[in-house]
Amino acid sequence: MKKIIVTTTINPPTEAIEKFDALEDWDLIVIGDKKTPADYSLKRGRYVPPAEQEAYDKALSDAIGWNCIQRRNFGFLLAHDAGADLIATVDDDNIPFEGWGPSLILDEKPSVRLYKCDLPVFDPIGATEYGHLWHRGYPLQLLHKRKYDVFEDGASIDRIDVQADFWNGDPDIDAMCRMEHRPDCTFKDDIFPLASDTWSPFNSQNTFLKADVLKNYFMFPHVGRMDDIWGSYFLQAKGGRVAYNKATVRQDRNVHDFTKDMVKEFLGYEHNLKLVEALHEDAEKIYDFIPKESGNSFDLYRKHF
User: Fold this and answer.
1) Which terminal Cβ of the chain has fewer Cβ within 10 Å, N or C?
2) What is the pTM of this model?
């Protein structure tokens, strides 16, 4: 099985990247940006500088733009070209724990705690001991309706296409939640793995994807901090199934301005619920919610599959 880790960075090699680069049963692809040091190098992995990305697909590069995490889409395409069976998308500020890996997604008969949800979206963080928090991209209009009292332990599901692992330290919550609570989390393992009978947001931070769903996963540029979240909803609208696993990294979060993050998330505060409802009708309605340049980049990305 060919397994490839994909990440982006504008920094010199971080502790996280060094640890991922040292995993001998994985190949690492690091996508650079205009701010990445010119002498950036890896011990084992492949660093892809800006010029190489432009040579690969100049139109896609122009449509995505520079100095943004959505450059990672080039890593997905290169992993696809390399024949990857499994792709891990990670952030460069996540330190992997011992045993990090796709234990759940490779299970032929996965067994999970399966939550029954009568809402169009399930919030996985609310199922943990940190029930006052919520996942970035969860529709705020549904927060007061969340319930976790109906579930089946040891439920068998037919497949898992996406394994989204949790993160100790600073979890992936939205800016409003972070400004209010400033959490430093250590998630207990006992409720994991978990899933729901409806869709739920997952991110690009510490996540494993099967190769055959990669064509339906795209980090949308020009939509602020909804890039990977809207990609997660689209993938599920195309039939992909996600399950959540215990925390397998600790995030020592890069410096963020919470107010600027909130501004970049406002599009989601306003549209997440409407988008999910529309995608339940037709996955291609994603184009009704993204700007033209974002749609153009998605079209260019899909042509590679």
Assistant:
1) N
2) 0.96
